[in-house]
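Subject: Sanity check before I submit

Could someone independently write out the structure tokens for this chain? I want to compare against mine line by line before I put it in a report. The sequence has 73 residues.
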Amino acid sequence: MKTNGTPRLPAEIIVDGKIISENVTAKHNMSWIKQELKKRNLTINEVQYAVVGTNGQLYVDCYKDHLLSSIDK
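---
Independent answer below. Compare away.
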């Protein structure tokens, strides 16, 4: 996806349960991040990694994923 001729890249928002403040924007601010996590019943401390994708959606990887298998089937 391009914005004004410049490709837009995903932005890391949370790494190891800590907010990456340099990547917090006016559109994807702390209020938005907390609201998105609340929708998922998560706190920042439960998130290992979160990124805002090029489509503006938040993708989250938690420390505890509750996966049944370590391999996708």
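---
OP: Matches mine. For the report I'm noting this point. The domain at 9-62 is CATH 3.30.240.20 (CRO Repressor).
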